[in-house]
Amino acid sequence: MGNILDTIFEHKKDDVATAKRERPLSELKGRLSLVPKAQDVLSALSQKGDGSNIIAEIKRRTPFKGDLVQDFDAMKIAKEYADNGASAISILTDSNFFGGSIDYLVQAKEEVGVPLLRKDFIYTEYQVYESRAFGADFYLLIATSLDKNQLKDLMALGHELGFTALVETHDEKDLEKALYADAKLLGINNRDLTTGKTDLAVSRRLLGQLKGLGGLCLVCESGIYERAHIEEFESLGMHAFLIGESLMKADCISEKLQELRGHDKTSVSG
Ligand SMILES: O=C(O)c1ccccc1NCC(=O)[C@H](O)[C@H](O)COP(=O)(O)O
């Protein structure tokens, strides 16, 4: 029996097989011309606007913690994120382990104007086509779970389809693969996806390895709960922050998002 990440990818094989039966690749290719052009996420996430760049995540549940929120309403959350300055929205589309749905991408595209990340466990070309055909502006590739050539090929396909991969790393081996594949949007995930444990020391350490490398847009992922974390990592060179749990569990999502962006009541009036 492997770890949870292996289990998720095992289930993903069935998901992909079902999706292919329901929507063959030819159908997805036909949809590509009907979806709006992908937004330029590299610019959106690199530029310092009137607050920190937050990729706010819609995450109903996790395999380790179960439901994060009661009365879950994905589109209500999407609108609250967009109305309160999220630079992008991450949509967990896996249903088995995270309670998500790929249909949230289509719905969110109609409701909000910010770029949408398709956050799933992508390992096939079919899923890259599917992400774009459902309106994603960028998509996740997890370096830990792909070899360097798979990573490069799945990134190249995204490039061909006109959208960007967020390449997620968790250790030095992943960084090597991401740099080999010439990732421009590079995530450092503080969460060990095999155990669920988060440790911000991962970002501190891997940022050190990237010193002197230009042209990268860096995203700090997972375990961000406070404004102080964001200030620390911005000073170390991070451009954007992918945040799920602390927003989903907040008493008031809009206030929490404004606080994380550096736009809470104190900083606005003071
Ligand atoms: O969130 C989990 O527990 C998890 C478990 C197994 C695979 C992936 C998992 N999460 C994906 C992510 O890393 C996060 O959803 C994302 O970076 C936001 O993290 P957080 O702010 O800590 O919710």
UniProtKB/TrEMBL annotation:
InterPro entries associated with the record: Aldolase_TIM (IPR013785), Indole-3-glycerol_P_synth (IPR045186), Indole-3-glycerol_P_synth_dom (IPR013798), RibuloseP-bd_barrel (IPR011060)
EC primary class: lyase
Record SUPFAM superfamilies: Ribulose-phoshate binding barrel
Pathway assignment: Amino-acid biosynthesis; L-tryptophan biosynthesis; L-tryptophan from chorismate: step 4/5
EC number: 4.1.1.48
Pfam families assigned to the protein according to its UniProt record, in alphabetical order: IGPS
Boundaries of every Indole-3-glycerol phosphate synthase domain copy: 5-260
Matching Gene3D superfamilies: Aldolase class I (3.20.20.70)
A GO term, aspect molecular function: indole-3-glycerol-phosphate synthase activity
Reaction equations catalysed: 1-(2-carboxyphenylamino)-1-deoxy-D-ribulose 5-phosphate + H(+) = (1S,2R)-1-C-(indol-3-yl)glycerol 3-phosphate + CO2 + H2O
Keyword terms of this UniProt record: Amino-acid biosynthesis, Aromatic amino acid biosynthesis, Decarboxylase, Lyase, Tryptophan biosynthesis
GO-annotated biological processes: L-tryptophan biosynthetic process
PANTHER family: INDOLE-3-GLYCEROL-PHOSPHATE SYNTHASE, TRYPTOPHAN BIOSYNTHESIS PROTEIN
UniProt similarity note: Belongs to the TrpC family.
Protein name: Indole-3-glycerol phosphate synthase
UniProt gene name: trpC
